[in-house]
Design brief:
This protein has 17 helices and 20 strands. It is of the alpha/beta class. Helix 12 crosses helix 13.
């Protein structure tokens, strides 16, 4: 079930939020700690005012008054908090009331009132520091009174913590307990577990109404429409194939929207999730636990994942980086769709430009035929993306200037590529600063920006703000959020032809999707 946590300051505001999302939610949680003091007397009448859901019946409600120690907004003292909980239960309309583990044994009157009203008790445990010891036991009912629903909201601080969380909830399920439970992994690292909550035996997953004037109830919440429509939460079962994108940061990625929309369009039982990963080895373990059938790889793990792969194809060997992984019967197999995704839009841009800045070098292919041979390119950055870009350009016969803030890293990248492509030995390396402006001018037929500079939230970043365009350059920024970066805006204003990272993203994502689709179809 999808539960909408209501964080409005007034009852009316909360009711409007329910009406907005009634088509996709199954119950609501009134976070009464967010209410204005003048609104609190209406808490007991709130359940009767809740509108009907998509099935025509009034949506059930949870009453929660969260203390600050559990991430709540209540600031009136513990006695007043319990008084408000008691007042709310007098109306007899709440399906559930949330009571924390730390007041267990001191809340007899609240439990008695809940029992009299037919209200089930959710016994909640919150940990904003990590994954507590004994989590599996708690979810299995340790320390929870008969009839109460254990709820654990914990905070994985990295990939290893997320593995511990999944192991704990899996152990709780394996124990054979049939009673309901609620499991929540908070924050960006825990986000995939919110979408997969049903797979972990969780009674529900929480969402918040998200708009410019609304507040998320807890770290990691998304709006219920996104949970329902994009991630298709109600359709996820034990048989749903799990895919994702691995990176850090990763929550900005467009990949979940792209792949989930294509899975839905093709009617495939699959879901694609963002995984914020700080430890590739831990993620591989997570991939076995869930299990994960395939994943995309983005900054900064395109090289780090390679040692964990059973096999890589020629595209990975050429680029020295991997951005696509799928599972076969024996393990993980790696591919690189960045090369194709990068080159196709560039060829289109060169063909459209028709001429190369300055005199066409001897032996160069006419650009009207979309040839790149003989052109000169500046590549900005020396990370995993640059590795694929430089390799692709060299194979196309393009002379490359490689710029990076740390020249030694650029030299290492050049030397590494040279072990696979001897032409890389001729790559020139220079610092990424204003001293290289004249070098860019000499190698500026094509300028490719491969770093994360300019990517949300750093939307004003421009990696070569010291360079003044002549207007004849083709400027390619592989950043795709935002679609038009500060670099591309400046280049376009100077008369340059520009290529957005969105085009690269779409071309490489399509190549990835075809592999994921094949995995799902073969498993049928």
């Amino acid at each position: 079930m999808i539960c909408l946590s209501l964080t409005g300051k007034t009852i009316a505001e909360n009711l409007r939020a329910i009406s907005r999302y009634a088509f996709c939610i199954d119950l609501v949680e009134l976070r009464a700690d967010f209410l204005l003091p003048t609104e609190r007397p209406e808490v007991d009448r709130f359940p009767s005012a809740v509108p009907a859901g998509r099935d025509g019946y009034r949506l059930p409600a949870i009453l929660t008054v969260r203390a600050p120690r559990d991430g709540g907004k209540w600031n009136e003292g513990e006695g007043e908090r319990r008084h408000l909980l008691s007042h709310g239960l007098q109306g007899g309309g709440y399906a559930y009331v949330d009571l924390e583990t730390w007041i267990a044994g001191e809340d007899e009157s609240l439990r008695t009132a809940a029992a009299a009203d037919g209200t089930a008790v959710i016994r909640s445990l919150h940990d904003f520091e990590g994954i507590p010891e004994g989590l599996a036991g708690f979810l299995g009912g340790d320390g929870v009174a008969a009839g109460e629903i254990p709820k654990a909201a914990v905070t994985p601080n990295g990939s290893a913590d997320l593995v511990r969380f999944v192991e704990a909830v899996t152990a709780a399920r394996a124990a054979g307990d049939s009673h309901p439970r609620i499991v929540v992994a908070m924050g960006s690292v825990g986000f995939p577990a919110r979408v997969l909550a049903g797979r972990f035996g969780s009674l529900l997953t929480f969402c918040s109404p998200i708009s410019h004037d609304e507040v998320s109830a807890a770290p990691g919440h998304i709006d219920p429409a996104t949970m329902h429509d994009l991630y298709r939460y109600p359709e996820i079962t034990e048989h749903t194939a799990v895919f994702g994108v691995v990176g850090n940061p990763v929550m900005h990625s467009r990949s979940p929207a792209y792949h989930n929309e294509r899975f839905a369009s093709d009617g495939l039982d699959a879901v694609y999730l963002p995984f914020e990963v700080d430890d590739p080895a831990a993620f591989v373990r997570l991939g076995e636990l869930l299990p994960i059938q395939g994943f995309s790889v983005t900054i900064p793990h395109k090289q780090a994942v390679i040692p964990f792969l059973r096999e890589v194809d020629e595209s990975v060997s050429d680029a020295g980086a991997c951005n696509t992984v799928v599972r076969d019967g024996l393990g993980w197999v790696g591919f690189n769709s960045d090369v194709t995704g990068f080159l196709e839009p560039l060829r289109d841009a060169v063909a459209a430009a028709g001429t190369v800045a300055g005199a066409t070098p001897a032996g160069a292919t006419p650009t009207g035929a979309a040839g790149l041979r003989g052109m000169r390119a500046t590549v900005v950055g020396a990370g995993g993306a640059a590795r694929a870009v430089v390799s692709a350009l060299l194979r196309e016969g393009v002379a490359v200037l490689l710029l990076n803030r740390t020249v030694e890293r650029a030299e290492r990248l050049r030397d590494e590529i040279a072990t696979r492509l001897p032409a890389a030995a001729a790559v020139r390396v220079a610092p990424l600063d204003e001293s290289s402006a004249s070098l860019i001018a000499e190698s500026g037929d094509i300028i490719v920006q491969t770093t994360s500079i300019g990517m949300e939230p750093d939307i004003d970043g421009d990696a070569i703000d010291f360079y003044r365009f002549s207007g004849s350059e083709i400027v390619y920024d592989i950043v795709y959020t935002p679609e038009e970066t500060a670099l591309l805006r400046r280049a376009a204003a100077a008369g340059c032809r520009t290529v957005s990272g969105r085009l690269m993203f779409e071309r490489q994502a399509d190549a990835q999707y075809q592999r994921y689709r094949q995995v799902v179809l073969l498993a049928r």
